[in-house]
């Protein structure tokens, strides 16, 4: 049986991460081995974690305190890891996650300043049993460029996306911190490139990293 492989996509707001997740899923859904891949998002994916997601991102009546926010993200992560990610990895699947603990380090650690980035890294690794992504794509963009993009999407933004420039500058500092600390698993993408250019680069890396799962010639249309 294949060993399984854990991939995460990370980045600040308006970096194009969600677009790449969507493009990758659409591409893989057409492959003959599409069952080898599981897409998850954090928080979310189970009834409980989807409710936690609503509380974290859309609850404006009684906003959670910073420590509450951190602990809710951690609680959702425990659910995601033990109910979705680890079972899939044990079956030899490739799990592709839209955010993981790097986001907590960047947002709740560096930007919120709830506790140090190192303490958050230690906490999150304890609660998930030391699980670390095999590969992390970091879509890197300056907060200034991100804000230009955000100015065109004034509607439909969640509570965290509405934070100011200083907050998102600190988010970038958090991502830079963890990508330097655990650089062996990080692949940094220039998020100012076009979505198609970024996607082609992601496909190239996946061909190199997991050729037993990912080949650019497995479309069902060829069979």
Q: Could you walk me through the main structural features you see in this protein, from its secondary elements to its overall organization?
A:
The chain contains eight helices and five strands. The chain is of the alpha/beta class and 223 residues long. The chain has one domain: P-loop containing nucleotide triphosphate hydrolases (Rossmann fold, 3-Layer(aba) Sandwich). It has a five-stranded parallel β-sheet with strand order 2-3-1-4-5, with helices on both faces. Helix 2 packs antiparallel against helix 3. The longest helix is centred in the middle third of the chain and has 25 residues. The two termini are 24 Å apart.
Secondary structure blueprint with pairings:
Layout: E1 5-10, H1 17-29, E2 37-41, H2 47-58, H3 66-90, E3 94-98, H4 101-111, H5 117-127, E4 135-140, H6 143-150, H7 165-181, E5 186-190, H8 195-209
Helix pairs in contact: 1-8, 2-3, 4-5, 4-7
Brief summary of the model shown:
This protein is of the alpha/beta class and 223 residues long.
């Amino acid at each position: 049986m294949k060993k399984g492989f854990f991939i995460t996509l990370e980045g600040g707001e308006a970096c194009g991460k969600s677009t790449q997740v969507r493009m990758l899923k659409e591409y893989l859904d057409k492959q003959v081995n599409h069952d080898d891949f599981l897409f998850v998002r954090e928080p979310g994916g189970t009834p409980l974690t989807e409710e936690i997601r609503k509380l974290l991102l859309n609850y404006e009546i009684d906003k959670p305190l910073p420590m509450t926010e951190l602990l809710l993200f951690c609680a959702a992560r425990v659910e995601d890891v033990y109910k979705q990610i680890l079972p899939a990895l044990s079956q030899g699947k490739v799990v592709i996650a839209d955010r993981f603990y790097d986001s907590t380090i960047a947002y709740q650690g560096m930007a919120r300043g709830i506790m140090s980035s190192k303490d958050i890294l230690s906490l999150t690794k304890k609660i998930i049993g030391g699980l670390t992504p095999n590969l992390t794509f970091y879509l890197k963009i300056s907060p200034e460029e991100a804000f230009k993009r955000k100015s065109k999407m004034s509607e439909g933004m969640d509570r965290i996306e509405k934070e100011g420039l200083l907050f998102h500058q600190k988010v970038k500092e958090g991502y830079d911190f963890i990508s330097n600390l655990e650089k062996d698993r990080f692949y940094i993408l220039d998020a100012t490139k076009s979505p198609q250019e970024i996607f082609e680069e992601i496909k190239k890396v996946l061909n190199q990293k997991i050729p037993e799962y990912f080949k650019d010639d497995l479309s069902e249309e060829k069979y």
